[in-house]
Amino acid sequence: MTTPLRIQVLDLPDESATDALGRSLAIVTADLHPGAGGTLRPGPDAGGRIHLQGDLGAGKTALARALIRACGVTGRIKSPSYALLESYKVFNLYLYHLDFYRFSDPAEWSDAGFREILENKALVLIEWPERAAGQLSQPDMLIQLDYAQNGRRATLSAYTERGTTWFDALIPTAGGLPPPTT
User: Which of residues 28 and 92 earns the better pLDDT score?
Assistant: First the structure.
């Protein structure tokens, strides 16, 4: 992977901070705007790709669930650990949540037929992207989640202009987020 264009580190002291980050990411990545009746709807700039990395239990799925729920998905949001892919449609936006933890060879990504998903206009969240090493292009944003005392530390790295646009919009919308660490 090339050098990121921007890096931001956030301390997430508890689950509510992880949820707040997911909600804030939903607003900027799905370009959410109030629609009829005040319901948030995806806008014309919705979509992109986020890679989520971290140890087991570091909060990748929790962050993805918070983002997906904030986009308007109701009901159960399952982990894609066994199915590899969970897909959702919210108005005109497709959301794909993939988990490559079970891959033992990067070629399995190609064999699974996921290439087409990345070509569509969609918001794609990929857990364990390193398991498809060399098969994926750079994400718009990589989020590394690490254990930090009782909470987590999230390192957000933007690799595209879209990712830097998300950075610029993220902090003003992140009302419940702790301040960035240096």
Answer: 28
Amino acid at 81: S
| Residue 153, token pair as written in the block | 């530390």
pLDDT-based confidence at 49, cuts 50/70/90?
very high
Alpha-carbon span 75 to 51, nearest angstrom: 24
Q: What is the pLDDT of residues 131-156, one digit of tens each?
A: 887 778 899 999 999 999 888 999 99
Distance CA 38, CA 36 (A): 5
DSSP H stretches of helix in the chain: 15-29, 60-70, 107-112, 115-119, 161-173
What 3-state DSSP class applies to 80?
coil
Q: How far is 50 from 157, CA to CA, in rounded Å? A: 10
Tokens of 14: 């508890």
CA 38 to chain centre: 24
DSSP strand pairing (40-41 vs 93-99): unpaired
Domains and CATH numbers, the chain: 6-176 (3.40.50.300)
**Cβ within 8 Å of residue 119, ≥6 positions away:** none
CA distance to 42, 53, 76, 90, per residue, from 39 (Å)? 10, 31, 19, 11
